[in-house]
Amino acid sequence: MSATALPLALGFVNPLVLSGLALAAIPIIIHWLSRRRFRLVDWAATRFLLEAERENRRRLRFEQWLLVALRCLVVALLALVFARPFVQPGLLASLVGGRGNVERIIVLDDSASLAFKIGAPAEFVALREAAARLLSWLHHEAPHDPVTLYLTSRPDEPLVARGRLGDAAAQELAARVLRLEPSVLRAQPRRVAAAVAAQIEALGPAAAADIYVLSDFQRSEWAPAGPSGRGVFADWTRLENDNVRAVLIASGHPSRDNLAIVDLALDRPQVVAGMPCPGRVTVANYGRLPSRAQMLQVALDQAPIPSIPVESVPPGEQRTVSFEAAFPDAGWSQLAAEVAAGDGLPMDDSRTITTEVRPHIRVLVVDGEPDADPAADEVHLLRSALAPPGPYSSGVQVDVIDASALPATPLEPYQCVDICNLPAPAPGVADALAAYVRGGGGLAIFVGDLVIPESYNEVFSSGADPLLPLPLESIHAVGAGTPGAGLVRTTEHPVTAAFAGAGASAAENVRFRKWIVAKEETDAEPAGKNDEPDAGDRPRVASATVLARFADAGQSPALVERRVGAGRVLLFLSTADPEWNDWPRTTDGSYVVTMLEMTQHLARRSEAPGAFVAGDVLRVHLDAERFESRAVFKSPKYPAEPAFSARAAEGPRASSGGSVQLDGPVATHLGVYTVELHGRSGENEVRPLAVNLDSDESDLTPASAAELSAALGPVAHTFVPSADAFLRGAEESRREIWPALISLAAVVLLAEQALACWFGSERRVAAGGIMTLLRRARFRHSAARR
Questions:
Q1: Burial class (CB within 10 angstroms; exposed 0-12, middle 13-18, buried 19+) of 667
Q2: Rounded distance between C-alpha atoms, residue 37 and residue 34, angstroms
């Protein structure tokens, strides 16, 4: 840390009393008024005596003026005593000492972490008081210097820009600072630093500036770890100006232990009314000691479900707790989790998400080889697995069509499309399927004897982003008399959740007699290196994931997934019916579970996020066919805070099934915002939007002085370890000197009295007695002459 010279600062507690210094002129006035006025007349008899008297006149005059000066000094010292002068040779003088015309820039951190408190005001209270006191000192010490004040939550909107601290302006600005409250937003120190650097650069290369930063200097914000090496203060280090210095004032709380909920999520991409949905809550301990055991309260649309115990979380670690919830009705719902942590930052002890609950998942099954006999029908068992008959619903609605109806069937109403033993479709149908998947839909491909590998490769593997996960090679059949190959899970995945574990078979009696061999392109270039449409002879990017393999000698892929655009494609290299395998007829239920999990996994995701983070722009996606392109956003503070109206930009209406994005306000409150949508047929819809604290704000670990000093680099700077030390150090460095002045006045008064007594002693009176008589005689003679 750089050393800074500490100049001497002088001030007065009661400066108006300094007018009493004028009283020091009273002894002089009395002296002049008391002088005798007469006219001198020479008298020959006294000439020699007068010559002796002239020799002593200078000494007598000096004595008189010395006494007058001492009396004036006593009066002046008494006036200074009542004015109570003080000197500040330390901290404050170094922070606000004048250096001519200096740009004063104050950066006040008002991020959410400053709301931390334990049995005392929040840390932000100490920082805002320090900022207000700093403004007062600047007003007294450098009233003509321009002042700019930034808040880290609003780096583009300074609270005041290059204002002058006159009496009224200083009081108003200090009052505004004292009314501030910590926000729920993250600090944006890099943007603030860039704005400060731009402001100083605009003043010229020789501009002088003092930058005061008041913050808790949370490490995740002010000293983030990362390979880029670009620090928060990188824009300051390029100034190359010796006239720029920084003063860092930390809030300096000694201990900031915190327990927080950092994640709340549902494990199902699609939530169906009435169907159990697993979820998880992650609790993190940012303290120095293990947390005590907690009870987690989960509420579904504000209706609590049974509490869940949370075991002690070791310091610096996280613990994930699972739960299960069933949403009773279709529509938009809220799910909230809360833990009674009892720490100093309660705003991160709860978290809320919103989700769209569907009445069911709509699945379109395309039967490539329909048959009137259900036992011989290609999709009979698949349809029974997804939507079994009976009083209990699986949450899936299945519509079955044959291949001839596919070109005329709109795909957008469905969350998932399954094609079973479908001959290679015409290019137009393949393009429609590809557009559907890239738009977010899910596609499951089940092969069969009508699937010709070469035709499929030609139709579904064209372009830079092919629809087919892996190229197909040939149909493989096991030899006669052999039981067939099993099915083995290769990676943990929701679709293979029914498998016992990695390397375990789906079932002991599952046997596959026939399948299509797919080519795994293990020699492909790394992802992202070959995304151009015209790749020439270079191998295509292998971005497919093999979820399960056949237990044959070649470990052929059996279940392969690949992401295409916003959607997913899953390729099953055997049939969905018992024609090539006996999996659909097993009694362990693994076939049914796998098909349901596959549908859940492939189904179209909602475009609406589960939750926003404070500081995000709230966005909502509208179905262009159902809703008008406008919405009204209301914050948790409504009606105290006015509603926000949003409207999409004018332009051509989205195509059928498309969506329109509306941008709402920036989320500045935690809780649930509501969005009112206007339907084209007259019906309105209200959607909730959950806003949570950024999980990074929960880690309250501060950056060290060494880390901040390294980030500042060559910039001259001073580090004050705490706001209390800043205020206390400034007050303690102010030394009032009126006791010394009283002592000095007493000494001067005693000296004046001693000198007056000595000057008027008998010895000196005797020596001057003749001169006194002569002066009196001279006066009388002159009076007689008149």
A1: buried
A2: 9
Provide the pLDDT confidence category of residue 580 given band limits of 50, 70 and 90.
very high
Backbone angles phi, psi at 582, to 5 degrees: -110, 15
Spatial distance between the Cα atoms of 222 and 245, rounded to a whole number of angstroms = 18
Structure-block tokens of residue 372:
């009137």
- Token look-up 């930058």 returns 211
d(Cα 353, Cα 657) in Å, to the nearest integer?
26
Confidence category of residue 50, pLDDT binned at 50, 70, 90? low
Angle (nearest 5°) at CA 598 between 488 and 279: 105
Hunting for tokens 């069509």 — which residue is that?
Answer: 401
- Whether residue 639 is preceded by a cis peptide bond, meaning omega within 30 degrees of 0, is yes
Pair type for strands 514-518 and 472-477: antiparallel
What is the overall mean pLDDT for the chain?
81
Q: CA 73 to CA 761: how far, in whole Å?
A: 24
If 0-12 CB within 10 Å is exposed, 13-18 middle and 19+ buried, where does residue 481 land? exposed
Of 543, 511, 518, which Cα lies nearest the Cα of 529? Answer: 543
Packing angle between helix 738-759 and helix 47-83, nearest 10 degrees?
Answer: 160
What values do phi and psi take at 679, rounded to 5? Answer: -75, 150
What span, in angstroms and rounded, lies between the C-alpha atoms of 224 and 190? 11
Residue type at position 4: T
Kind and range of the H or E run holding 59: helix 47-83
Length of the chain measured in residues:
786
Sequence-ordered strand ranges (E) for 137-237? 147-151, 160-163, 209-215
pLDDT tens readout for residues 190-201: 999 999 999 998
